[in-house]
Amino acid sequence: MHRSLLITLLVGLFGCASEGNPIEVTESSDSTHAPPQENENAYDPIATLPDTAQVASHLTPEQLELGGPLVDSIGIVLAPIPAGEYLMGSSDTDQAGLPMERPQHLVRITKPFYLGVCEVTRAQYEQVLDARPWQLIDVGEWLEQGQQPESKLLAATSVSYHNAVEFCSRLSEIEGAEYRLPSEAEWEYACRAGTTTAFSFGDDLSELDRHAWCYGYTNGSEGRVHAVGQKEANPWGLYDMHGNVEEWCADWYALKYEGESVNDPTGPAEGDEVVRLDESGEEVVSGRARVMRGGSFAMYLDPSCLRSAFRAGYFPDGRRSTFGFRVVREYVESE
Fold first, then answer.
1. Phi, psi for 179 (deg, rounded to 5)
2. Which helix (H) or strand (E) holds 169?
3. Which of 309, 308, 158, 170 has its CA nearest to residue 248?
4. What pTM was computed for the model?
5. Residue 111 to residue 18: CA distance in whole angstroms
6. 52-330 fold
């Protein structure tokens, strides 16, 4: 296969549009395409995590009726996500939509679940698995950030799908409750939080800076991972659903939605065979991928990759400095 053609295909499968050909996102008339000016005071390095009281203030009456937020023994705050239904993916008329986001289809989430309001932090990951995968890849970043007061609150990065599954398994043993990765349908449902717009905060890109870390498009992003929970929450009290780190989902990745169950879909049984370049950038390797959602801080000047419907697929053993996750805890009414 011609290399330029292969790279074009890989961008569609595994990442976002290039800077030279950004995907169009509908904006309101008073929004702007120009990235905000960098402000060295826009990011406070002394970060704190949202607590249950702060999270509760963002929840809907329906979420509060489910019992409100809870916090587990390692400090993960979880919000109850109510049952409901929504249209998953992008419509045929959505100019920002991509082929892998179609066809748009009805999904019903038939029972509530708890979802971590933030991505898993480095401190939480290390406490459960006694490992620091970010040191294996992000050596320069670790040396630079390792002594900063907020370093333990950075989202855990360079985490493979298998690492994330192991974390959930170990945490289930610690807590005596079932933890797992969200299904792709649960993830988009929670991200949208009842909205039908490109982002959970609307279609206006001028609002992106208040809700996401996206290098070159938001103040203080600096092209690196940030402490979780520092931007504004979505309508269901969830932070960083757009940007910061890409988040693993439980599903195998398919090139398009096909034959999906309406009720609580969990994706294809095996997923589609996909290709990528190896680490040398020369050889083509193939395999099956797992879904990742949310985009990351590294979506250079292309915030369309942070849309609620945007999806990507990566090999489950893959590690990148943008790879992270958040957890689901099964809802038990007595809690």
1. -110, 150
2. helix 161-175
3. 158
4. 0.85
5. 39
6. paralog of FGE (formylglycine-generating enzyme) (3.90.1580)
